[in-house]
Amino acid sequence: MNSFSFVRQTLAARMRARESSGGKEAVQTMSTLTYKCPCCGASLAYDGMTRRLQCASCGNSFELEDIEALEATGSQSFIDFEQPDEHFTDEEIEAINSYVCQNCGAELMTDATTTATECAYCGSPAILPLEIEAGVRPQKVVPFRITKEQAIEIFQKFFTGKRLMPNVFLNSKNRIAEMRKLYVPYWLFDCEAYADMTFNAEKKHYMRQGDWEIIRTDHYLVRRAGTLCFEDLPVDGSRKMDDSITESLEPYDVGDAVPFEPAVLAGALADRADVDAQECEDRAAERMKVTIESEISSTVGGYTSVSRRSSSVNARGGRVTPVLMPIWLITTEKQFKGEKRIFTFAINGQTGRLTCDVPYDKGKAAAWFLAVFAGCFGSGYLLLQWLLGSGVF
Q1: What does DSSP say about strands 74-82 and 305-336: parallel, antiparallel, or unpaired?
Q2: According to the model, what pLDDT value does residue 21 have?
Q3: Whole-number Å distance between alpha carbons of 110 and 95
Q4: Residue ranges in the chain whose pLDDT is less than 70
């Protein structure tokens, strides 16, 4: 999973497991609900003394909760977030310059003392000032800790040891065409998610009697439930930034953030969020769902085989915080496969983590794989010859 910052709490404290060797079949007849024994198919009757469902035919008994869990299948989730509604004040609007790029449509803003001459995304000089709209304002800004000089050094060192990169990046100096200091809008999602999951599990026991091998299979219904707290799960709010790039730059230390004010933008450009928080909810909810399901599934062990039967993930009272994250954008031009291409490098302005859109050389990768395979095969052959010659076999 691409990395992000979250806090895990109370998972073990609130984890519970229910196991039973059966299932449920419910038949609705008129107004009567009849439960069938998962072992023999006979009708189950509720015993008021034991408070369990009893089978008069085979003698098994079951918890009502376990029998009802057998009916649950598929996956469902409901994760709700409270949307931010704080807007720019009149004073902030006066202290911010806003621009729109006529080439790519980016809406950028900076403080009143900084004049934008080109677009931070496409480098086009065709950017025009406009009146800033009173949209949702960022609440926090994670400031730049990586200087321009440090970012250039990180960029130059990136190519060291990258043997699978195209030769055009390794045989000549990589000159920077453009370098831009940019704040990218993010939405931070907080919530406490609760998951309730059931699994079909099997345990196989192997026995031998004479010439016969006997396999006995025990079937189980396994139930797990627990909570996981998420804090500051980031989702970028810019359509112009590739999600794979922004997720590769994570994590950020949001604890280092400062309250937003126009002066923080001095000398940099900030992108206006063009993907609202509600639209980003699905991505945040999916990342949360995958994480909590993975955590709970990891607690189901000791079985020969396990398959998920049902999953329900719910969260209410979630919160969304708009924040600006620091990114250095670097572009370089290369003659690649007979044409001039522009490659983009992004550096986390807080940690120095770098990601890029440079493809690996497929020819080099294939040659490397063949060399490794040949080396392993040759070593195995020599070892076999030694063993044969030494009389081991």
Answers
A1: parallel
A2: 41
A3: 9
A4: 1-33, 69-75, 113, 115, 117, 126-135, 162-172, 174, 335-338, 358-393
pLDDT of residue 375: 56
Q: Tokens 């600006």 — which residue?
A: 324
Give φ, ψ of 24 to 5 degrees.
Answer: -140, 140
The whole-number pLDDT of residue 172 equals 64
Q: What are phi and psi of 85, to 5 degrees?
A: -140, 15
Write down how long the chain is.
Answer: 393
Q: What is the value of pTM for the model shown?
A: 0.68
pLDDT at 360: 56
Under 8 Å between Cβ of 158 and 358: no
Q: What is the 3-state secondary structure (H, E, C) of the chain?
A: CCCCCCCCCCCCCCCEEEEECCCCEEEEECCEEEEECCCCCCEEEEECCCCEEEECCCCCEECHHHHHHCCCCEEEEEEEEECCCCECCHHHHHCEEEEEECCCCCEEEEECCCCCCCCCCCCCCCEEEECCCCCECCCEECCCCCCHHHHHHHHHHCCCCCCCCCHHHHCCCCCCCEEEEEEEEEEEEEEEEEEEEEEEEEEEEEEEECCEEEEEEEEEEEEEEEEEEEEEEEEECCCCCCHHHHHHHCCCCHHHCEECCHHHHCCCEEECCCCCHHHHHHHHHHHHHHHHHHHHHCCCCCCCEEEEEEEEEEEEEEEEEEEEEEEEEEEEEEEECCEEEEEEEEEECCCCCEEECCCCCHHHHHHHHHHHHHHHHHHHHHHHHHHHHCCCC
Q: What is the pLDDT of residue 118?
A: 76
pLDDT at residue 199, as a whole number: 92
Residue type at 197 in one-letter notation: M
Counting beta carbons within 10 angstroms of the beta carbon of residue 284, is it exposed (0 to 12), middle (13 to 18) or buried (19 or more)? buried
Q: Which residues pair with 35 in a beta bridge?
A: 26
How far from chain centre, in Å, is Cα 174?
Answer: 32
What is the pLDDT of the chain when averaged over all its residues? 77
Residue 224: name the closest of 289, 285, 286, 293 by CA.
293
133-183 residue pLDDT tens = 666 788 999 999 999 999 999 988 887 776 656 666 666 676 787 888 999
Q: What type of residue is 164?
A: L
Which pLDDT value is given to residue 376?
A: 58
